Amino acid sequence: MPFYGLKTRIKQLADHHEERCGLIADACRETPKTSKELVPVVFHKHALDVHQMGFAAGELMPMSITCWSKGRLTAEEADGVLR
User: Fold this and answer.
1) Burial label, 77 (beta-carbon count in 10 A; 0-12, 13-18, 19+)
2) Over the Cα atoms of the chain, what is R_g?
3) 78 pairs with which residues across the strands?
4) What's the pTM value of the predicted model, to 2 decimals?
5) How far apart are the first and last CA of the chain?
6) What is the DSSP string of 7-43?
7) pLDDT of 4-60, one tens digit each?
8) How far is the C-alpha of 9 from the C-alpha of 6, rounded, in Å?
9) CB within 8 A of 24, min separation 6: which ones?
10) Phi and psi of 28, rounded to 5°?
11) How far apart are CA 10 and CA 26, in angstroms?
12) Does the pLDDT of residue 1 top 80, yes or no?
């Protein structure tokens, strides 16, 4: 079957990504956070088990790096932990 609505789907994905980046930036404004600490901020609608928590934290790393590369976040390292 042909796929219809590619431009609409791309817009939906871009909007979703922007929403997530906004949540991340807002959460880090007052206190720096790790990917793990951001999981409940971004995935607040889902109850995650330990396995899913690992995937969620892994997904947050590139999202956070994207926010950082666009100047929406700064990085800070303390005791070998990047926040």
Assistant:
1) exposed
2) 15
3) 81
4) 0.79
5) 45
6) HHHHHHHHHHHHHHHHHHHHHHTTS---HHHHHHHHS
7) 899 999 999 999 989 999 999 999 998 899 888 888 888 888 788 888 888 888 888
8) 5
9) 38, 41, 42, 60, 63, 64, 67, 72, 73
10) -95, 0
11) 24
12) no
The Cα-based distances of 34 to 28, 56, 66, 78 in angstroms read 9, 12, 14, 11
| Tokens representing residue 80 in the block | 């070998």
Run of H or E residues at 81: strand 81-82
Tokens of 22: 């906004």
78, containing H or E segment:
strand 77-78
- Enumerate residues 6+ apart whose C-beta is below 8 A from 41: 23, 24, 27, 33
